[in-house]
């Protein structure tokens, strides 16, 4: 027992010695904690073009933002995201630019409005980017990668590399601002002209339409009101010459005589426009039995054109039903819905659908196809008021199967002596 007590005392002594050797500050006097030294703001904003890595930390460990002159307040960063496929960042404090750079988001700029302009992050609601330069939208505008400061984006518009007020009477002619109302002032090259009285030919020559006309960039000394252009030539409106927009001669249109020729499918073919009509690239004589069906010539005495397809049957003695022809002399063959043919003796047309049988009610069987059945009272019932021997109907109307045509009919016409509002009468 004494040996066991000695062993326990020795173990406790060794434990105290180990605690003194391995626990830091066990035998030392208590000291106040050292105040943490926070880095300056410049350490969180590396210079332009430098790799984004903070002192002693990898690039993806973005420290909380520091506000100079205010107490250090860490910002909850949330979940990280990936920028450029490999770089990790926190959207709560930084922005991923389209170029693949991760830049710190300035204070006061919401994440949904943050945008990049080179190595600078700005508020897209109040600012904009112009060739790597950030400017204010309300006082400047970007014109051809040049920032103009004589007006904002809402009040000014661009003309080349300069801007001018939208509401003033000014027009932009080839990058130069000119005076004039945009409603009646046009540009002809670098100069302006009155659109009410003049025209511009090939964007360099002003002319009077009462004396000249412009055809393919060339001025022709003929008035514009009674002539029209056909290539580089001018033709008189309503004359004997026509213009065919053909591409067979290097894109230039062709002139033809409207009395002996026609323009069909971009080609000039024999046959005047008064006696012929075009069918594809062929002129069909209106005085013959030829017709045109979807660009094809056919004989109207043997065929008929139904929905762009040729079917057998004379033109004058048949009627189209979709892509089929019905002889006009047939009384039983009819058209259903404009697309289906049916025989009235064996079929019927119900809601534009051909059904077998001569009645739609035999096919549907719905309650709406049933007729009204009269439930009469017992023959020994009391006669109706007013005499006549007609028993009073003590029942009502119910829906039932169709009644025989030879059965009693229902009437309540005032012409037969029944007062208004009385129950139906059997006749």
Distance from first to last alpha carbon = 132 Å
Low-confidence stretches: 17-64, 364-422
Mean pLDDT: 75
> Share of helix among residues?
under 10%
- The assigned structural class equals mainly beta
**What is the beta-strand fraction?**
35-45%
In spatial order, strands of the major sheet run: 1-2
Give the total of beta strands: 42
Q: Main β-sheet, in a few words?
A: 2 strands, antiparallel
Query: Which shape, going by the Cα principal axes?
Result: flat
The total of helices stands at: 2
Q: Give the oligomeric state.
A: single chain
Q: Supply Rg.
A: 49 Å
Care to describe what's here?
This protein is mainly beta and 427 residues long. The chain has two helices and 42 strands. The strands form 21 sheets. It has a two-stranded antiparallel ribbon. A two-stranded antiparallel ribbon has the order 3-4. A two-stranded antiparallel sheet has the order 5-6. A hairpin with a 2-residue loop joins strand 33 (318-321) and strand 34 (324-327). It is flat and about 140 Å long. The N and C termini lie far apart (132 Å).
């Amino acid at each position: 027992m004494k040996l066991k007590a000695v062993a326990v005392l020795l173990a406790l002594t060794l434990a105290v010695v180990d605690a003194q050797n391995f626990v830091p500050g066990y035998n030392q006097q208590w000291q106040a904690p050292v105040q943490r030294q926070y880095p300056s703001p410049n350490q969180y904003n590396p210079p332009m073009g430098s790799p984004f890595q903070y002192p002693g930390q990898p690039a993806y460990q973005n420290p909380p933002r520091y506000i100079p002159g205010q107490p250090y307040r860490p910002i909850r960063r949330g979940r990280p995201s990936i920028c450029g496929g490999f770089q990790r960042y926190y959207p709560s404090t930084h922005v991923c630019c389209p170029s693949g750079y991760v830049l710190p988001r300035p204070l006061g700029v919401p994440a949904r409005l943050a945008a990049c302009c080179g190595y600078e992050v700005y508020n897209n609601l109040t600012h904009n980017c112009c060739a790597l330069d950030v400017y204010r939208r309300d006082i400047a505008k970007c014109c051809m990668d040049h920032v103009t400061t004589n007006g904002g984006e809402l009040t000014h518009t661009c003309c080349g590399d300069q801007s001018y007020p939208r509401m003033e009477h000014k027009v932009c002619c080839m990058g130069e601002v000119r005076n004039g109302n945009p409603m009646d002032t046009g540009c002809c090259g670098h100069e302006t002209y009155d659109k009410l009285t003049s025209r511009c030919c090939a964007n360099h020559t002003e002319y009077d339409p009462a004396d000249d006309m412009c055809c393919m960039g060339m001025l022709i000394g003929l008035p514009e009101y009674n002539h029209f252009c056909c290539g580089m030539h001018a033709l008189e409106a309503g004359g004997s010459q026509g213009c065919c927009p053909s591409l067979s001669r290097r894109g230039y249109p062709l002139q033809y005589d409207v009395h002996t020729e026609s323009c069909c499918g971009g080609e000039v073919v024999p046959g005047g426009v008064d006696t012929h009509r075009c069918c594809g690239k062929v002129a069909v004589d209106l005085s013959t039995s030829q017709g045109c069906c979807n660009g094809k010539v056919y004989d109207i005495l043997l065929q008929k054109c139904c929905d762009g397809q040729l079917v057998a049957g004379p033109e004058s003695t048949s009627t189209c039903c979709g892509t089929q022809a019905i002889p006009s002399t047939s009384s039983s063959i009819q058209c259903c819905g404009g697309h289906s043919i049916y025989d009235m003796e064996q079929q019927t047309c119900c809601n534009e659908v051909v059904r077998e049988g001569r009645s739609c009610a035999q096919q549907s069987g719905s309650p709406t196809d049933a007729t009204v059945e009269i439930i009469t009272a017992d023959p020994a019932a009391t006669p109706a008021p007013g005499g006549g021997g007609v028993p009073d109907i003590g029942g009502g109307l119910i829906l039932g199967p169709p009644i025989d045509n030879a059965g009693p009919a229902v009437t309540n016409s005032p012409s037969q002596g029944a007062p208004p509002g009385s129950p139906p009468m059997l006749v």
